[in-house]
Each structure stands twice: as structure tokens, then as C-alpha cells.
């Protein structure tokens, strides 16, 4: 099933938060999370507090707690809101192409909300699987459906998901790192500040200065996917380049 952006994030980019101290309609979970996301986007996770959030929605903190029991619930909701924007077409017959699309869409989503990335990585780890918000689990469910319908076993589908998203989390955290120290410099070693490293101790790292300075996140992601997708197919299906079929399963039994 193709998922469209919906759920708690609907309209998040179209409406601004209510002015602080002003009652602007009925308070609800969606309003709270949209406002929380804007605070995190602007000031980071550390800039979000229940008091600041209540001021941003123009309500008494007591009213806020009627909808969100604590800051942890708000953080879970923000992560869920962002992940709800990640669409997976589980009916796509080209499972590899669909995973490639999902990977690039996840990267774009993370670059749009860089301050939310730590939540995407850590909040699921802090919550048992069955207690996570539905929107946080939807990408997993849809990727599993995509791969299982393509002929992979459920266990292999789960393995592919873990490998793919494990890489995506690390990839985006690496891409978001600030690597350019002196952008006005034309010498790559100076631009990256690698001149501080002794050439006798770090010759390989210094030699890679041009590649480090010209880092292309999208191209590097494609390079990984070009290794992952054929490799996974070969490893999990016995090397014939196709997912297992019903005949293969029967023969194996």
C-alpha cells in the first residue's frame, strides 16, 4: 500500500504556531507537536521544554499536560511526525528501486530536520517495540511488506531493513558533521584544518583532503546502495540475483 504524508504532521509546514500567550482555538496533540517540531528545528532538542512549549502554544502548562504527559512523550511525537512523512510503496514490484527511493527520501527528510535526527536514532531505542507510536513503526511494517511480497522470507526482510536503516542513521549523522573549517581557503588541507595533523602520522588522511572537501552525500548513499542491494540479493537468495520463489522454497524443503 502506498502511504501518503498524513497523521500528526499534516499541514505542519503550512501553519505557524500560535503566538505566545494567545488562545488560538482548541488545543490538541497535533497543534502541540507541530509547535514542538518548530522549536526543535530552530533551537534543537535542548531548546525544547514543557514551559517553553506551553508559552509557544499560548496555554497554561497544566493544559499541555492533559495532552502530553511529559517531554519524553513530546519527543516521541516529534519523531513520529517526521517519520510519518516517509512514504513506502509496498506494492512496488521493483523492491530494490523502492528501497533506493526510500533511502534518498529519508536523507532529504533528515536534512530538512537535522535537529530531529538524534531523536530518530535514539527514541526508538528508548522505547520497547510494542510501545512505540504507530507512526514510528510504519516504515518498518511497510518495508517488511515490500520485501515479503517480493519473495523474501520475513527474517531476511527484517535483516535487510536493519542493515539499510542502520546505515542510513550513520550516513546522515556523518553528513551533518561540520567538516569545512575555513571555507575561504582554496587549499583543501587548509579548508579542512588538516594542516594541524602531522603529515608523518596522518599521511593517508591528509592525502584524502580533496575527497573529504568535495563530499557528496547523495552520491555516497548511491554508492552504498549499489553495494548493498546486489549483495543482499546474492547473500539471501543463493546468488542467482532473484528473491526466492515458491518453487525454490518447496525444493529446499
From TrEMBL:
<feature type="compositionally biased region" description="Low complexity">
    <location>
        <begin position="1"/>
        <end position="21"/>
    </location>
</feature>
<protein>
    <submittedName>
        <fullName>TetR family transcriptional regulator</fullName>
    </submittedName>
</protein>
<keyword id="KW-0238">DNA-binding</keyword>
<dbReference type="Pfam" id="PF02909">
    <property type="entry name" value="TetR_C_1"/>
</dbReference>
<feature type="DNA-binding region" description="H-T-H motif">
    <location>
        <begin position="49"/>
        <end position="68"/>
    </location>
</feature>
<dbReference type="InterPro" id="IPR004111">
    <property type="entry name" value="Repressor_TetR_C"/>
</dbReference>
<keyword id="KW-0804">Transcription</keyword>
<dbReference type="InterPro" id="IPR009057">
    <property type="entry name" value="Homeodomain-like_sf"/>
</dbReference>
<feature type="region of interest" description="Disordered">
    <location>
        <begin position="1"/>
        <end position="27"/>
    </location>
</feature>
<dbReference type="GO" id="GO:0003700">
    <property type="term" value="F:DNA-binding transcription factor activity"/>
</dbReference>
<keyword id="KW-0805">Transcription regulation</keyword>
<dbReference type="InterPro" id="IPR050109">
    <property type="entry name" value="HTH-type_TetR-like_transc_reg"/>
</dbReference>
<dbReference type="GO" id="GO:0045892">
    <property type="term" value="P:negative regulation of DNA-templated transcription"/>
</dbReference>
<dbReference type="InterPro" id="IPR036271">
    <property type="entry name" value="Tet_transcr_reg_TetR-rel_C_sf"/>
</dbReference>
<dbReference type="GO" id="GO:0000976">
    <property type="term" value="F:transcription cis-regulatory region binding"/>
</dbReference>
<feature type="domain" description="HTH tetR-type">
    <location>
        <begin position="26"/>
        <end position="86"/>
    </location>
</feature>
<dbReference type="InterPro" id="IPR001647">
    <property type="entry name" value="HTH_TetR"/>
</dbReference>
Amino acid at each position: 500500500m502506498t502511504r501518503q504524508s498524513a497523521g500528526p504532521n499534516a499541514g505542519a509546514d503550512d501553519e505557524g504556531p500560535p503566538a505566545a500567550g494567545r488562545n488560538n482555538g482548541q488545543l490538541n496533540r497535533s497543534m502541540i507537536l507541530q509547535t514542538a517540531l518548530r522549536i526543535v528545528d530552530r533551537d534543537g532538542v535542548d531548546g525544547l521544554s514543557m514551559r517553553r512549549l506551553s508559552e509557544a502554544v499560548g496555554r497554561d502548562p497544566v493544559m499541555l499536560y492533559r495532552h502530553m504527559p511529559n517531554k519524553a512523550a513530546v519527543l516521541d511525537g516529534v519523531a513520529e511526525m517526521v517519520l510519518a512523512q516517509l512514504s513506502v510503496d509496498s506494492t512496488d514490484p521493483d523492491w530494490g528501486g523502492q528501497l533506493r527511493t526510500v533511502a534518498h527520501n529519508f536523507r532529504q527528510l533528515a536534512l530538512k530536520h537535522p535537529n530531529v535526527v538524534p531523536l530518530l536514532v535514539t527514541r526508538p531505542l528508548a522505547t520497547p517495540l510494542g510501545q512505540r507510536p504507530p507512526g514510528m513503526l510504519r516504515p518498518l511494517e511497510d518495508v517488511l511488506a515490500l520485501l515479503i511480497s517480493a519473495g523474501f522470507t520475513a527474517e531476511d526482510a527484517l535483516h535487510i531493513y536493519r542493515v539499510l536503516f542502520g546505515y542510513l542513521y550513520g550516513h546522515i549523522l556523518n553528513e551533518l558533521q561540520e567538516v569545512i573549517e575555513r571555507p575561504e581557503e582554496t587549499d583543501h588541507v587548509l579548508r579542512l584544518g588538516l594542516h594541524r595533523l602531522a603529515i608523518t602520522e596522518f599521511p593517508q588522511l591528509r592525502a584524502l583532503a580533496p575527497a573529504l572537501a568535495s563530499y557528496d552525500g547523495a552520491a555516497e548513499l548511491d554508492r552504498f546502495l549499489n553495494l548493498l542491494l546486489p549483495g543482499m540479493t546474492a547473500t539471501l537468495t543463493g546468488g542467482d540475483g532473484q528473491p526466492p520463489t515458491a518453487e525454490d522454497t518447496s525444493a529446499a524443503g
